[in-house]
């Protein structure tokens, strides 16, 4: 059975390093099987470049299953490409047409300095978590898991928020390059659970402070983040974050 | 003879007793010791966080841009623990026994018993960290079943259990980074181990952004660098999973145990073509509700729903009525291979059905969606077919390495000061790992075992006191530089991936789901040729001093080629079938794995023999005091 294949033209952002000048370069990808993933298509283009002794396109990837959050690029203007609820590694070539021109750029944000080509530095996310995105329990001190019950709806809501993979698409999609959705998802997960309650106030203040400090913009409710999120994290989490923050300002709270 | 340093006393009391007998480092002295932890998966992150909480200085390293992206993040189905919350007859002893039996009696009793003991603490700790495990309406934790067990002891967070557990451990690690007690080194690749006067005292790594080589010294080195399934090129592992850290340690004198024990997981999305870069697992948890079948008639080309039940072979249920679809992985994989070899695979190829029709009718779509929603979605994205409407197509794929660096009961390798945790060690799963036990083992090692055992070593041995100017550190740096120079000098005609693919196919054919002496010998002839081809004809573009992903891959593939050779040698030497190691010469009348307990009841630990020399095998005999060595049966 002859596989369906397509031929496409790529316009890819190439930039050797943070200080180097960037530019778009064009590549033709011929006879790409439609069953390949987007990254496998890039593998083929890169193999061609390698054979020609040229520098292959640098892009990040690891699990190729949509869970590690390594991959990501802006494809035809959409973070992770046009498919809803899909990371770049889970985007398949069957969603493109023969003859398409595909533009691929890195996630751009002041707080995500470029490293090379499509690779950016997202360590700002780690520092936001360091500010308080955890419950401070030391190993060995926990009571029996059933000592504290968690109502199922709360557990489900916590899980919805905890599904964030930290890819940075929300930042890339936001006109202000805000990290509100990322930050809110963690705050929201932990404040839904009884275990997270004691550190609630400190957590929200510290994480928001760090987010601002890293140079992310603020949220002006465009909701592009939610549209781009491969894990469908909801902007309702941002409302939760804001509510949690207001609580810290209330007297007696 | 190798000594596993198993404590004396009755099995169930060994760990408790040992914990009391080990030496302690006083709180005032702990900050004087520096521990290097390589790897931030479940094993590394949990170890680094726990050691730092205790007061040790910790430096932690990983390949990814963030520790949160370690391969553990991809684990789907769940984590075992002997909580017996469902009151269905589970106990520490049963989890211990299932794991020993599942591993086909090729693991150490004492290690496995300890694993079962601490399994309960893991769940307590993760819940306290805010891991959102699945719950019942009552607010209590929910359990599901996994292969090789007749009780429900698997805790899970939808199909993202690894992600949630890792984010818990990562949070704990970030807490310690914020306290400035852990120094974090992401985007670093460990390329050598520094051994001074027989003791592991540091590492050499490459900064993957600048290309600069760095020397880091410490009083102990912990490798938690994951498994080497990617030696087969196609596997369910993350693309960066590799053997380099372990292989470098092996070349510096650490023993590598049972390298041929690799797990082939029965439920993965079948290979679709020659450009495929990796395989995707469909979690074993799906076998709770999915039924595995093929058409009874060869060449039956009807759509699956048009084939009536009577004309379907539910081959696992028929062959193993007691465990049905939940037989262990090695058994399920071989059964799928057998029906496909017999020409019964779907469309005559390498695929069988995993069908949810009956579960959907029984529980309704909402329940199935809640249990497996993200897996169904992933399947649809990849294959372009909707598993709510048509059965999934699956086939076995390389998944997990039971083999790994040899460690004693304290998780220390034969090199003093070198500890190995998680999938990188060989310790607990024998010849076959049961589902949901890798997460358990990684977290047991990191949270609850190493923090005790490392103190005993440091209290007894003191500081390593090696400086970057000392010969062992300088030599390791020089050797690493020389190797990198050689790699970046390669300007041949073939890409790194091409050679890796070729190696993978060779290994899959001769050292995969079934092995035999003739095939292994053939592979052992071919691998040195591949090695030669690699070191002459591969093309490494770019230079060392930049972000260079080709160079990273080239270094890893070079080590995979060497590992592949050792795997085949180990598979040839192990003249029996056990667990995932199926030697066609050794099978029972009905094609099950036939062990040879008289000659093969041991761990095969390999020592590097020096350049151009054959490796040397050391044996650690396995003695069983508590269980009776039986022919495994899941009927
Ligand atoms: C798709 C999939 C699903 C799975 N599902 C389950 C499940 O449901 N239940 C279960 O129990 N098990 C499951 N497993 C197995 C389990 O996920 C792994 O065995 C386990 O997570 C390994 O953890 P680890 O901490 O040992 O290593 P990893 O998580 O693999 O971490 C390795 C770490 O080492 C670092 N590293 C590696 N080499 C170097 C180097 N040279 N220098 C510096 N750093 C290095 C990496 O950056 C990474 O941080 C699954 C595995 C796969 C592939
Ligand atoms: S590579 Fe892991 S999410 Fe895409």
Could you walk me through the main structural features you see in this protein, from its secondary elements to its overall organization?
- The complex is a heterodimer of chains A (253) and B (635).
- Chain A has 253 residues and is of the alpha+beta class.
- Chain A folds into two domains: 5-105, Ubiquitin-like (UB roll); 123-249, Alpha-helical ferredoxin (Fumarate Reductase Iron-sulfur Protein, Chain B, domain 2).
- Helix content of chain A is 33%, strand content 14%.
- Chain A is built from eight helices and seven strands, in the order E-E-H-E-E-E-E-E-H-H-H-H-H-H-H.
- Chain A has helices at residues 38-51, 123-130, 152-162, 169-173, 180-192, 200-213, 224-228, 236-249, and strands at 5-14, 23-33, 74-75, 78-79, 101-105, 114-116, 119-120.
- Chain A has a five-stranded mixed sheet. In chain A, strands 6-7 form a two-stranded antiparallel ribbon.
- In chain A, helix 6 (200-213) packs across helix 8 (236-249).
- The radius of gyration of chain A is 21 Å and the shape is elongated.
- Chain B is α+β, with helices and mostly antiparallel strands.
- Chain B folds into three domains: 11-235 and 411-461, FAD/NAD(P)-binding domain, CATH 3.50.50; 266-396, Succinate dehydrogenase/fumarate reductase flavoprotein, catalytic domain (Flavocytochrome C3, Chain A, domain 1); 469-621, Methane Monooxygenase Hydroxylase, Chain G, domain 1.
- Helix content of chain B is 36%, strand content 14%.
- Chain B contains 16 helices and 19 strands.
- Chain B has helices at residues 14-21, 42-54, 92-102, 109-129, 161-178, 244-251, 315-319, 329-341, 357-363, 365-383, 438-461, 471-488, 496-510, 517-537, 549-573, 597-600, and strands spanning 34-38, 57-61, 79-80, 154-155, 182-185, 188-196, 199-207, 213-217, 220-223, 256-257, 262-268, 291-295, 312-313, 352-355, 392-401, 404-405, 418-420, 602-607, 616-621.
- Chain B has a five-stranded parallel sheet with strand order 5-2-1-9-17. Chain B has a five-stranded antiparallel sheet with strand order 11-15-14-12-13. Chain B has a four-stranded antiparallel sheet with strand order 16-10-18-19.
- In chain B, helix 2 (42-54) runs parallel beside helix 5 (161-178), helix 2 (42-54) runs parallel beside helix 11 and helix 9 packs antiparallel against helix 10.
- The mean pLDDT of chain B is 96.
- At the A-B interface, helix 1, helix 2 and helix 3 of A face helix 2, helix 4, helix 5, helix 10 and helix 11 of B.
- The complex binds flavin-adenine dinucleotide (FAD) and FE2/S2 (inorganic) cluster.
């Amino acid at each position: 059975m002859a596989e369906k294949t397509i031929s496409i033209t790529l316009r890819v952002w190439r930039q050797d390093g943070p200080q180097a000048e960037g530019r778009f370069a064009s590549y033709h990808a011929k006879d790409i099987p439609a069953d390949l993933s987007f990254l496998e298509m890039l593998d083929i283009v890169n193999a061609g470049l390698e054979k020609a002794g040229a520098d292959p396109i640098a892009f990040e990837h690891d699990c190729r299953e949509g869970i590690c959050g390594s991959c990501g690029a802006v494809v035809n203007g959409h973070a992770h490409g046009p498919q809803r609820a899909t990371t770049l590694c889970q985007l398949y070539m069957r969603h493109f047409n023969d003859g398409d021109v595909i533009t691929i750029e890195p996630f751009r944000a002041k707080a995500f300095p470029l490293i090379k080509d499509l690779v950016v530095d997202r360590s700002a996310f780690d520092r936001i978590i360091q500010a308080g995105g955890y419950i401070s329990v030391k190993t060995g001190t926990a009571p029996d898991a059933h000592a504290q019950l968690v109502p199922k709806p709360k557990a489900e809501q916590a899980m919805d928020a905890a599904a964030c993979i930290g890819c940075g698409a929300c930042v890339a999609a936001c006109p202000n390059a805000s990290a509100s959705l990322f930050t809110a998802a963690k705050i929201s997960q932990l404040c839904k659970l009884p275990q997270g309650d004691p550190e609630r106030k400190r957590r929200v203040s510290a994480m928001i402070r760090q987010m601002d400090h890293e140079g992310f913009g603020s949220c002006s409710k465009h909701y592009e983040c939610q549209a781009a999120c491969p894990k469908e994290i909801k902007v309702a989490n941002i409302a939760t974050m804001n509510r949690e923050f207001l609580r810290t300002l209330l007297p007696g709270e | 003879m190798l000594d596993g340093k198993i404590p004396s006393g009755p099995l169930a009391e060994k760990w408790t007793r040992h914990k009391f007998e080990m030496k302690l480092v006083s709180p005032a002295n702990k900050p004087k010791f520096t521990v290097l932890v390589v790897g931030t998966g479940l094993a590394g992150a949990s170890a680094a966080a726990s050691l730092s909480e205790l007061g040790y200085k910790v430096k932690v390293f990983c390949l990814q841009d963030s520790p949160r992206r370690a391969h553990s993040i991809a684990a789907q189905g769940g984590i075992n623990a002997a909580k017996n919350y469902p009151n269905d007859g589970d106990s520490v002893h049963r989890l211990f026994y299932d794991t020993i039996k599942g591993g086909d009696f090729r693991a150490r009793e004492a290690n496995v018993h300890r694993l079962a003991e601490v399994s309960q603490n893991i769940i307590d700790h993760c819940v306290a960290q805010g891991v959102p495990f699945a719950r019942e309406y009552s607010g209590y934790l929910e359990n599901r079943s996994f292969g090789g067990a007749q009780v429900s002891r698997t805790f899970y967070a939808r199909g993202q259990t690894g992600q949630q557990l890792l984010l818990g451990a990562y949070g704990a690690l970030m807490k310690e980074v914020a306290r400035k007690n852990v120094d974090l080194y992401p985007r670093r690749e460990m390329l050598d181990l520094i051994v001074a006067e027989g003791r592991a005292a540091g590492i050499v790594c490459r900064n993957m952004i600048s290309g600069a080589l760095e020397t880091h010294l410490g009083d102990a080195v912990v490798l938690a660098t994951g498994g080497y399934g990617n030696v087969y090129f196609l596997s369910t592992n993350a693309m960066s999973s590799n053997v380099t850290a372990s292989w470098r340690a092996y070349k510096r004198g650490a023993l590598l145990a049972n390298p041929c024990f690799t797990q082939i997981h029965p439920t993965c999305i079948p290979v679709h073509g020659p450009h495929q870069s990796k395989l995707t697992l469909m979690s074993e948890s799906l076998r709770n509700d999915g039924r595995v079948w093929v058409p009874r008639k060869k060449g039956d080309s009807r759509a699956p729903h048009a084939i009536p039940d009577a004309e379907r072979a539910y081959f696992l249920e028929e062959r193993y009525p007691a465990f049905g679809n939940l037989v262990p992985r090695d058994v399920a994989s071989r059964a799928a291979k057998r029906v496909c070899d017999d020409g019964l695979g779907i469309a005559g190829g390498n695929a069988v059905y995993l069908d949810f029709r009956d579960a959907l009718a029984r529980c309704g779509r909402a329940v199935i969606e809640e249990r497996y929603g993200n897996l169904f979605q992933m399947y649809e994205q990849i294959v372009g077919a909707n598993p709510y409407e048509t059965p999934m197509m699956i086939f076995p794929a390389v998944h997990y390495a039971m083999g790994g660096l040899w460690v004693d009961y304290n998780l220390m390798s034969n090199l003093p000061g070198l500890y190995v945790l998680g999938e990188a060690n060989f310790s607990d799963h024998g010849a076959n790992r049961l589902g949901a036990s890798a997460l358990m083992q990684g977290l047991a090692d990191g949270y609850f075992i190493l923090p005790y055992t490392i103190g005993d070593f440091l209290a007894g041995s003191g500081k390593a006191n090696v400086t970057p100017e000392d010969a062992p550190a300088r030599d390791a740096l020089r050797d690493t530089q020389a190797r990198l120079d050689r790699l970046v000098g390669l300007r041949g005609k073939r890409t790194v991936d091409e050679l890796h693919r070729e190696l993978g196919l060779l290994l899959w054919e001769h050292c995969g789901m079934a092995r035999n002496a003739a095939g292994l010998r053939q592979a052992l002839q071919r691998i040195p040729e591949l090695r030669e081809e690699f070191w002459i004809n591969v093309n490494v573009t770019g230079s060392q001093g930049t972000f260079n992903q080709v160079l990273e891959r080239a270094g890893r593939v070079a080590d995979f080629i060497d590992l592949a050779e050792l795997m085949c040698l180990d598979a040839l030497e192990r003249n029996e079938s056990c667990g995932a190691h199926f030697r066609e010469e050794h099978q029972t009348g009905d094609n099950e794995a036939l062990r040879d307990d008289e000659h093969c009841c041991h761990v095969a630990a390999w020592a590097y023999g020096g350049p151009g020399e054959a490796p040397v095998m050391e044996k650690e005999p396995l003695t069983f005091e508590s269980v009776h060595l039986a022919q495994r049966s899941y009927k």
